[in-house]
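dumping this here before i forget
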Amino acid sequence: MSGYDGSAATRVVVGVSGSLNSVTALRRAAALARRLRAQLWPVLAWEPPGGDSAARRSPAAGLLVEEWQRLAKQRLASVLEEIFDAEGPGVPVQPVVVRGAPGPALVATANREDDVLVVGTGRRGLHRAFSGRVSRHRLAHAVCPVLAVPPSPLESELLSVHRRNTWHLRIDTRGL
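structure:
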C-alpha cells in the first residue's frame, strides 16, 4: 500500500471467519478504518456443507439454506461482539454475510476503487498470502488496494503447543 492515499477510502472490507488470522486482520482493519474515518465492513462468506449441488439435492434445501444463513449471521455477530465488546470498533460497522467462496465474496464486496480490502496472510506469512487460492483470487481480481496482514505472534506459540501435545512431549516448566 505504499504510495496509496487512504484518505479517500470510504470502506474497509475484511474477511472474518473467527480464526486467529481473521481476528488479527479484523483488528487491523478496525484500526485502519478509525484512522481513515471509514466504515468497517466485516464479511463472513459461507458455503453449504458439501457445496451448492449437495444443498440442491436435499429435500429440505430451502429450510437448510435459511438455517445455514442464520448460523453464519450468528457467527459473525458473536465474533464482532467478542472482539469489540459493547464499545464497538469506534467506526460505523456494516456486517455482511455472503453465500459463496471467500475469495469471490470479498472481491465482490470490496468493489469500489476507494475501498481497502484487508486480508490475513495465514500461518506461513506472506508466502501464503500470495500463493493461496483465495488470496490469489483477491489479488488478481480486486479493484482496490489490498492490505495483507501478517499472522499474530501468538500463532507460532499455539502451533508449538499443538505440536508438543500431538507428539506428547513434556513442557519445560522451569521458565514459567
